[in-house]
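Onboarding guide, step 5: your first structure request.
Type a short instruction followed by the sequence, for example:

Predict the 3D structure of this protein.
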Amino acid sequence: MTIDEYRSKKQGQTVVGRNKYLSGLVKRTMMCFAFVILVLLISMANETCRNYIKKYLLETNFEFSKISSIYNKYIGKITDDNIEVVSSNQLLEYTKEEKYIDGVKLTVSENYNVNLLESGIVVFIGEKEGYGNTIIVQQSNGIDAWYGNIQNSNVKIYDYIEKGTIIGNANNILYLVFQKNGENLNYEDYIK
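The system replies with C-alpha cells like these:
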C-alpha cells in the first residue's frame, strides 16, 4: 500500500465517521425533542401536574434576594462601571401619613422624587388596583416594597437598584406597601 492509498483510505474513514456522528447527533436531538413534547402533553392532560406547574411556576414569588446574597458571598458584588446612578441624599419626606388598604398613603410634595429605601431588584412594573402605576422592588433583605402612584420612571423589570436611587416621581400622593412571603408588614417599621 502506497502512502497515497493510505491517505485516501483514511480520508474516506474520516468522512464516514463524521457522517455517522452527525446522523447520531440529529437522531439524539430529535429523540430529546420528542421526549420533551411527550412530557408536556402528558403533564398538561394531568390535572394534578397542571396545578403543580401553576402553583410553583406561575404563582410562587421567586426570591431574588437569596440568589443575590449567594452571588455576593461566593462571587462578589455586581458592579458595572458603565452604570450611572442618579441618587439623592434626601430622606423620605412627607407631611401626612394614613393607613391605606395594605400599606400607607403618604402626602408628599408635587413632583416628589421617590428614593429607593433599600437596595433590590425590580420584580414588577405596572398598574395595581388602588395604587396606580406601581413599582415593586424585592429588597436585598427579602422584603417586597411597593411604590405606588409613580410617574416618570426610568427603571426596567429585573434592574438591580441601589438604596437612595431615584426611581420616579409622585404627585402629592405616594403609596407604600411592605410584604414578606405574601404577608403585609407594618409600614411604620420601614418609613420612620
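Each response can be followed by summary notes, for example: The mean pLDDT is 82.
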